[in-house]
Amino acid sequence: MTLNNLLKLFSDQNCETVYVKELVKNNNSKQQIYLASGDTQILNVFPVNDFQAVLNPHAKKETFHAACNFSWMDDEGNKFLAPNAKFILYPKYPEVRFSGFVQGCKKAPSAILNNTVPGRYLFFGVSKTDQILGYASDANSEISKEFSNLKNIPMIGILYSLAIKAKKLILDTKSQLLLRLKEIYLKGWINSKQLKPGFLIAPCNESRCGGLTLEAELGIIQNGKSEPDYLGWEIKQFGVKKLHLINSARITLMTPEPDGGFYKDKGGIAFVRKYGYQSLSDRERMDFTGYHKHESFQKKSGLTLRIIGFDFTSKKISDPNGGVFLFDLNENIAASWSFSKMLNHWIKKHAKASYIPSLLNTIPYRQYRYSNNIILGEGTDFSLFVDNIASGKIIYDPGIHIDNISSKAVLKARSQFRISSKHIRELYRHTETVDLDKVEKDVK
Question: d(Cα 443, Cα 69) in Å, to the nearest integer?
């Protein structure tokens, strides 16, 4: 079994990204495996189920637990489900651990996991169907020896990061991404389109076509996922009025519905009737809108946004049961988003992201042109998201309304947390603005 053979097995299982953890002495099946310490960016590379706040009765501390679809893979590519595998976030440190990966599995590599010899590796293949496949290599195996000899492997936290394209190993994914984006930028105006299953090109004529056209150019099939990726990089397009004004746009980060307060208890229609206002242009419509910033009274809604359970000095969650709240003048909770709710939305973003400005032309038909100046971000973290709400850089900017208010009211829900593109760099540990005109064509 060689490293190339292993990567081919991952590729056959529809995996384009593989993450590798070098196992140290105390990494075994009896103890949880540390995947991140000091930040939570590693959560943005693994597809997991919803996080839930869980109280540890022994340690008397609350953590977040999330199950996942994890299976071990053998040398022939056979898969063996580990039904109890889960990720655990310890928010006060913060720390992320992998647990339950052997329990209940018919053929886990327990012998490799239970020895303490250094030089063992744990491979995580992430498939396009949100499955995680694991493979453990012994210290004396050909795979471990080959991997240890690789040079300049990119890392996400303490994990090595590999990309597979056309069953070939790609280490420098950033250069590959930039080259492809440069090719698209040099095309100039591109007819609006979308890439359907079966690689069928179809026309596109709606507001989100800027992203769909870019995805089609990158060969990304439309699959309903909110954050498409290319070689492990999130692709985020946003519209601007002029291509050089890359800091002028407002970007929607997530649209989670409240899971607490009056909104949750009585419903969105009752919420808009109580905290919204009559539309000036339509007597049968009520709106709930307005920029809501942390600790700033919003005159239109009469509400104040406030974060509870977050230590603003250490920038860590101090109470896993806390979250983001909207309070009215009587200190009633109009709406709230628990940290677990927000976390579940945030982890759908990627640890590496590219933000590409675009220009729209609608005459004689819809076309898009993409900028040569793009923003790259690496190493996102949920604490950065919360801290940017606290600083007022991320705002709650709802677009909620109800129609037919005098008869059978209909709710249009749109709870948006948004940020100006000039502040997008605040969400990542490392960012850079790249001029694609300066990207060399011969970069491999």
Answer: 36
Measured at the CA of 409, the angle between CA 406 and CA 415, to 5 degrees, comes to 130
Task: Report whether 29 contacts 110 (CB < 8 A).
Answer: yes
User: H helices within 296-435, ranges in order?
Assistant: 339-346, 382-390
Domain segments of the chain: what residues?
3-170, 252-348+377-428
CATH fold of 3-170 reads: At1g16640 B3 domain (2.40.330)
- Specify the 3-state DSSP secondary structure of 321: coil
Write out the DSSP string of 106-123: TT--HHHHH---TTEEEE
What would the pLDDT profile of 359-396 be if each residue is shown by its tens digit?
Answer: 999 999 999 999 999 999 999 989 999 999 999 999 99
Tell me if the domain spanning 252-348+377-428 has CATH number 3.40.50.2300: no
Find all residues with CB under 8 Å of 365, minimum gap 6, and list them. Answer: 191, 192
Using a pLDDT cut of 70, give the percent of the chain over it.
96
* 3-state secondary structure (DSSP) of residue 307: strand
* Distance, CA of 17 to CA of 355 (rounded, Å): 20
